[in-house]
Amino acid sequence: MARKKNSGVDPRYQDKERAALMRSSRKSVFFNKKELAAINEYCRRFGVRSRSALIRQATMEHILRELDENHPTLF
User: Fold this and answer.
1) Distance between CA atoms of 64 and 69, rounded to whole angstroms?
2) What's the confidence (pLDDT) of residue 8?
3) How far apart are CA 50 and CA 38, in angstroms?
4) Can you give the pLDDT of all 75 residues of the chain as single tens digits?
5) b vs e for 29-42, b when ≥16 Cβ sit within 10 Å of the residue's Cβ?
6) What is the rounded CA–CA span in Å between residue 66 and residue 72?
7) Among 74, 72, 75, 55, residue whose Cα is nearest residue 63
8) Residue 37 contacts residue 31 (beta carbons within 8 Å)
9) The model's pTM
10) Based on the number of CB atoms within 10 Å of its own CB, is 54 exposed (0-12), middle (13-18) or buried (19 or more)?
């Protein structure tokens, strides 16, 4: 049996990080036929296998960009 390579990081810390990133909340999104066709065409053309990951990534990129651009200022 192959041994795991020791990365020098405390395993308890790694477990805590994994737990913090675990997705436990669900949201539903509805698409019309044209939107779904566009998503399916994009996935087919660019070889995307996980549509949920694509939608999650695009959504979070947009949200984080907006938050960064509209951060509160002191003046």
Assistant:
1) 9
2) 79
3) 15
4) 566 666 678 889 888 888 888 888 999 999 999 999 999 999 999 999 999 999 999 999 999 999 998 887 776
5) eeeeeeeeeebeee
6) 12
7) 55
8) no
9) 0.67
10) middle
